[in-house]
Amino acid sequence: MTNPTVYLRVNRVDASLCAQARDVTVADLHESTGHLGYTGLMSARMKRVTPGAKIAGPAVTALCQPGDNLMMHRALRLANPGDVLVVQCQSETSAAQWGDVATSYAMAKGLAGVVVQGCVRDTDTVSGLGFPVWSTHVWPIHADKGKGGGVNIPISCADVLVRPGDLVVADGDGVIVIPRQEAATVVTAALAKMQREADIVQAVRAGATVWDLSGAAQAYEKLGAVEHDKAFDD
User: Fold this and answer.
1) How far is CA 79 from CA 4, 28, 157, 162, in A?
2) What is the pLDDT of residues 7-48, one digit of tens each?
3) Cystine design at 158: which of 46, 134, 170, 185 (Cβ 3.0–4.6 Å)?
4) Which three-class secondary structure state does DSSP give residue 49?
5) Roughly what angle, to the nearest 10 degrees, separates helices 100-109 and 70-78?
6) d(Cα 198, Cα 175) in Å, to the nearest integer?
């Protein structure tokens, strides 16, 4: 059996940048990653468990073997306030990676939230506590504690590469991961996009149309669409 690989230190994205990212939506961050050549968006099967939750923070990572969540617990023990724990279980429905006890501990430590490729349980209690959780499955199946894996190593969570220290942002639309070295550029671009959209909203309230302001009118004109001033079955 291969011994687990555990790194005790993480080079984290700057805390002030995380604070800025909390004001940005996942959608606007996604729209600002074109220069990276990939979206950073986790699979659509990654769903928010805690209603209304939104987080931004540096990733600490755990790779868990099927049926086991020991590496999650080691990562949770090592995590700092403001961190986002990102867990990859190699067999997603083999064991619950997260529950109410881990939630209580994470809240006491001041973690920002947890993102799990795998199962979480005790969701009524977790939601009632208001701790931010995202997961690909909800299922209360038992987890052992005894297998290897890794902590604070690069993992693949819901089809996205996550490196320790990367910026993780999550809201009702999903979860996005921005490489630490690119985070400042992406967040700045997303904030600018949000301001442009706020200006559009103001213009719409003043009587302008989204059809014109969004660029849809110009794009439609280029298609050369044939319009008929009648119903299709006249």
Assistant:
1) 17, 28, 18, 16
2) 999 999 999 999 999 999 999 999 999 877 778 999 999 999
3) 46
4) coil
5) 20
6) 23
